[in-house]
Amino acid sequence: MSYIDDNLITGEQVTYRARLHWSVLTKPFLLSLLLAAAAAVLFYVAIGGNNSEQTTSAITWTGIGILIVGAIPLVTGHISRSSAEFAVTNKRVILKTGFIQKKTAEMFLNKIESVGVDQSIPGRMFNYGSIVIRGTGGSLEPFEKVSAPLEFRRQIQEQIGKAFGPAERSSTAGV
Questions:
Q1: CA 137 from chain center: how many Å?
Q2: Are 101 and 172 in contact (CB under 8 A)?
Q3: Shortest CA distance to 128 belongs to which of 31, 53, 34, 22?
Q4: Contact indicator for 126, 23 with CB cutoff of 8 Å
Q5: What is the reported pTM?
């Protein structure tokens, strides 16, 4: 089960889930691609060169080692993306990143003052951005590269609207 599902309170239901955008895998992919190219060069040298059998073996094993090291960024990137959870419930907003070292933020809807979305130009093009939820008495750190951040904000606002109807909002508006 997920962190969010394990930490729901009585009567709470998840209304919207989000995840990290696929762009978090871009740098690990490029690093792995670079290391795979280096390994390919080593394999080419081992096969095509006039090397001794011992040198060819050493070059081949070095290439294999580089390929294994090149897979590590892809695996860690995938784990980071898979372990991040973002949800809006009918009572709270829950944000969690990290697998071994977790970073979590949970805020009741009635404590939210504003929801900010920061999107760069690539973020607007590929629909990702940072979400910053400001609550009464403090603020949270931004959660970076969340997929569809404008929809996430809309879902939060929709749940706040459902939880605190127009009567309650209009009675507090004059205060």
A1: 26
A2: no
A3: 22
A4: yes
A5: 0.80
